[in-house]
Amino acid sequence: MAELPECAVDGRGQAETARIIREEAGVISDVQVLEVLRRLRHESTGVGPLEHLLAIDGVTDVVVNGSGAVWFDTGDGMHRADETFTSDAEVRTLATRLAALCGRRLDDAHPFADGRMCRADGTAVRVHALLSPPAEEGTCISLRVLRQATLGLDALAARGAVSPEIAELLRSIVRSRRSLLVVGGTGSGKTTLLSALLAEVPHRERIVCIEDTAELHPPHPHVINLVARQANAEGIGEITMSDLLRQALRMRPDRIVVGEIRGAEVVDLLTALNTGHDGGAGTVHANSLAELPARFEALGALGGLGRTALHSQLAAALRVVVSVRRSPSGQRRVHQIGVLEGNPVTVVPVWDAGSGELGGFGALRESVGA
């Protein structure tokens, strides 16, 4: 077949591409030409036949479970899409191309890949792919849409995510330079709330945000974003969260923020918060306030920090924990506020969305000047 023009799939050369298709194919209808053009576009740009699912307003995830099942989530649970693939080979081809776009290797010798790609509309998509085998149902693709968190506390209050009274308390906590954590499960709104809290930092202060994937973009005039990087296909070029934390300490930060604490970087973060860097913040995956100490013990062990030392560092570094939760209907809201007490550390709830003010709530308000 004749060589197609480079711009064949981006709209600029479709007429020329159609002419070449007709010359090579002989007798062919307009419908067949359009189908060939569609397949060319799907096989060479974006996420192929999944593009229109990513364009759905509010979509957070698109997953492919082999050739016969495609699902998407708009925040209220998974919905099955009408689209399917003709074969596992077609899914595998898409998965391999997406991995290559992310600079990752995906083949029988390395049957899984994880990376990030940027789309033309400015959004980022986290890509995970798993070949068959080991995936029994066929090649699996998981796409997570990473939208930049830019809402403020007032906007969250208007959406019912937080009451005006609690929003004012959170403002006071941030402005009093208390270090805090936002905890919750996957998709509960941790990053959105953290971004809203960072918007309350006085504008004369410099914020350094360290993330695995760039999501924090609070409406604040002085934010520096540092993003970790995985090793490339040759196994070199990795930049870890711990590397970035050490660099951040040399960048004259007023606030050090870790978008998601998930590994050995917890040791460097606690060290920073205990050496004069007040007002730090971050998010942690935990289903409740009570689970936070155990979660930190596990993360500290990854960095070689023992249980006793971890609790001593944690007790001195952090004071306030905010728990967020997503309801079965998809509503994200602040669920609890707690304070860290004792050594070993425990998290004591002082406010609950269902019960209201609990013991210690007045002391917290007084301590932050609310």
UniProtKB/TrEMBL annotation:
- Give the signal peptide, or none: none
Bacterial type II secretion system protein E domain ranges (all copies) = 45-324
Taxonomic superkingdom: Bacteria
Pfam families in the record:
T2SSE
Q: Which is an annotated GO molecular function term of this record? A: ATP hydrolysis activity
Q: PANTHER family in the record, alphabetically?
A: TWITCHING MOTILITY PROTEIN PILT, TYPE IV PILUS RETRACTATION ATPASE PILT
Homology family:
Belongs to the GSP E family.
What is the protein named?
TadA family conjugal transfer-associated ATPase
